[in-house]
Amino acid sequence: MFELSPQDWTAVQLSLRVAAVSTLVALPFGIAIATLLARKSFWGKSILDAAVHLPLVLPPVVTGYLLLISFGRKAPVGAFLADHFGVVFSFRWIGAALACGVMAFPLMVRAVRLSVESIDRRLEDAAATLGATQMWTFVTVTLPLALPGIIAGMMLAFARALGEFGATITFVSNIPGETQTISAAIYTLLQVPGGDTAALRLVVVSIIISFAALLASEWLSRRATARLHGA
Amino acid sequence: MALKARNCPPARGIAMLVVQVEKQLGEFSMNASFASEGGATALFGPSGAGKTSVINMIAGLMKPDRGRIVLDGNVLFDTAAKVDVPVSRRRIGYVFQEGRLFPHLSVNHNLDYGRWMCGHAADAAAFNHVIELLNIGHLLDRRPGKLSGGERQRVAVGRALLMRPRLLLLDEPLASLDAARKRDILPYLERLRDEARVPMIYVSHNATEVKRIARHVVRLEDGRITAMGGTDLLDAAQADMLA
What is the pLDDT of residues B106-121, one digit of tens each? Predict the structure, then answer.
């Protein structure tokens, strides 16, 4: 009874790949921006902060459209990347990953920033007196202490990417096997008469994936916190 | 208050540490100049006198507005010559009031952190010597969160020593401990002074503590040095307080 069709499987695998790739690629940028916002004061900080949060507030369709007119095959950034690096986003799964990464970025930055801000900076001073340069202090003290927040940020980004629909479908359309993620597949099935049962199967799968992701991040985050408090 | 110069115990030739710093911190203005010949020097004075600010400037954690800091003939800070050696390159060990052990690292890794960051080769003999000196061998696998206040401070001293500092700064290392713990740790600090042969600046407002640890005393009051000399200064300070 509960059997996924090959198309369903493709959508599930694609969703997982898109979510994982977008989370991992967004991570270094997210940590860098979060640290910048948490630690430095510079001209235009509030503008950067607002720009990072924009995808959270804008309708996803608008974000998707903005991606389309900047990262499309004929658009300025998209054409440059295609000509010089051979990276094409339009109608490819990598474009879906870009859309998901952009949509998830504010959530990741917020979580990481909060945990960087909560770090006792006196520990970083202590590291400096022990001979650690700024870079080493960041790697050996700041990052490990921010780990619970980094895990939470990755989890939020992954969840957001799994659920992304509007920006992805606007930017890279809904092509089975290439850009059709679980959300898009469910949407497509619901447009077809008699597609409800198939849609329901994908709904159950997406609930299972989300649940597993939540439990895993909860467990990881608790372990990371326990490590910091001396277990 | 008049500056009372007293006879110091025999010096080792040139001054090991020269500090001349000025700093404005809001309403509070600091202007402190003193020299130390090595050994254990106490920076003594009431809370709020600016003792921690002075050693933060020596360590490089706070930047003086004007002044000069020279350690072993090596200029660490000089506004006139525009020298400001970064904290990480000063090689000055610092034992903070609250220990500031890294909570995510075991005691063993905390102790090893400075050696690793300074790029020294592992030295088992030095490591074992410090562990034995401070009696912290049984704590190596623990995390700082599981240590008592006294154990934490002993590990903090060990961590600062193992980076092989040119100078050791101790900022009220016993202030967060109760009387019984203080009595337990004082002997370790005395052994440290006698055996480790690292010059020390010991910050404290407690005359009894200072008397046991230090040979020289620099008295700081309201951002100014008011007296320099031997531990007999402390008797005068105590008499002042009792009067």
Answer: 999 999 999 999 888 8
